[in-house]
Amino acid sequence: MRPIEPLPLNHSWPLYDLRQHLAPVLLDSTIAHNDAALAERGLGLWHCDLADNALSWTAGVYDLFGLERDSIVPRALSVSLYAPDSREAMERLRAYAIRHRRGFTLDVDIHQADGMGQCAMRLIAAPILNDDGVVVGLHGVKQLLPKGSAASHRLDPTIFVML
Predict the structure, then answer these.
(1) Which of 6, 39, 57, 116 could be 61's S-S partner, Cβ–Cβ 3.0 to 4.6 Å?
(2) SS3 category, 119
(3) What is the reported pTM?
(4) Of all helices (H) and strands (E), which one includes residue 91?
């Protein structure tokens, strides 16, 4: 696994830092609002509704996981594709993010469903709050990382890769 313990202290950040963690994608609106442009760069946007764990992904996330674009993907399936140590770290940070209303960044290893093997992915997640301040969802960015890349705490625009 890529991260260093303790995970919440090293990888968790307050919601007011969200723009800073997503800055490379937000800087260029032609990329941030263009599903194909994101996918070409190994990027995808995602959303998880906590009421039913329904996932919404852009094309780049489907490509990362090696799943057919626009298919319905149960959260249990996507979680099963994480390498065991990455899955454990992601689930711990996810629970921490929901409980403490904080975002997180984590580099993980996933097994692609299409048989293309294992790849590294940067996961950036932030909670979505309702008007009462209750976390009702999570959303963020997933980015393909080149083989051998060092772990990081932020999205790095210099390592966009073609799928």
Answers:
(1) 57
(2) strand
(3) 0.82
(4) helix 84-100
